[in-house]
Structure formats: C-alpha cells, structure tokens
Amino acid sequence: MLRQLTNVQVWVHDQDEALAFYTEKLGMEVRDDVTVPEMGNFRWLTVGVPGQPDVALTLMAVPGPPVFDAETQAQIKALMAKGASGGLFFMTDDCRATYGELSKRGVEFQQEPTEQPYGIDAGFRDPSGNQMRMVQPR
After folding, report:
1. Which helix (H) or strand (E) holds 98?
2. How many CB atoms sit inside 10 A of residue 79's CB?
3. Rounded Cα gap, residues 63 and 49, in angstroms
4. pLDDT at residue 84 above 90?
5. Do 123 and 133 form a contact (C-beta atoms < 8 A)?
C-alpha cells in the first residue's frame, strides 16, 4: 500500500525563474537539481520547506512533444496564466507578519490577509501563474 506522499508537481514556465521565486522569495530550500542528458537534458528540480524534509515541490517545465503535443502544451500554459491549474496551501504561524515579509521580498499578493472562519489567509501567485494561499489556522 501507499505509505507517504513525497512530491507534488507544479508546472512552471521557466525553471530558473521558478527556482529563484521559491527559494529567494518564499525561503524554500533546493532538494534536487539534476539534469539528465540521456533524456534530452530533462531537469529534475525540487524544493521544499525547511524543516519538512519528507515533502518536496517538483518544479516541472511544461513539456512539448513527445510528452504533450504543441496544442496541449499551449493549453496548459494558458490555464497556468489564468491561475486555473491547481494550487498550493501553506501554513504560517502569523499570516500578517508573513505577508509583510513576503511582500518586502517582492511577492505579489492577490488577496491581503483576511479573517475567515478557519483562520486568517492570504493569496498570491508564482511567476508562472500558479495560485497559492497561506493560512494561519484558528
């Protein structure tokens, strides 16, 4: 049986740009950065939250042929730009303080910290358009 979730894939337009965003702005750490020449220079790039070693985000470039035809690749990129390709949720101890720190680092928020029935949350996107939320639970 399945035992543990280890990676969550996040589509990105540019792996270097995503790497800078997730590490420099969000404060994540690089877990893997491996290029495989035998697979057309496929790059396996993962980052994770410090102190949470068992889960990583795989920052995956949207592949073209032979994985996806050009039309499918373009559709995925269009959905990403609209923020409609999924999302990530992060927990924080102090949503307002984290909002302030991330804003100083250049993270652009779509929603400022807002009181919700489940806690305080705020919303932002990565450079590829992926939706993210951070929440301070009640």
Report:
1. helix 95-104
2. 14
3. 26
4. no
5. yes
Say what the pLDDT of residue 80 is: 86
Q: What is the pLDDT of residues 11-29, one digit of tens each?
A: 999 999 999 999 999 999 9
**In 13-92, which ranges are continuous DSSP H helix?**
15-20, 70-81
DSSP code string of 13-66: S-HHHHHHIIIIIT--EEEEEEEEGGGTSEEEEEEE-TT-TT-EEEEEE---TT
d(CA 25, CA 69): 33
The token pair at 80 is 């990403």
By CB atoms closer than 10 A (0-12, 13-18, 19+), residue 103 is middle
Residue with tokens 């993962």: 46
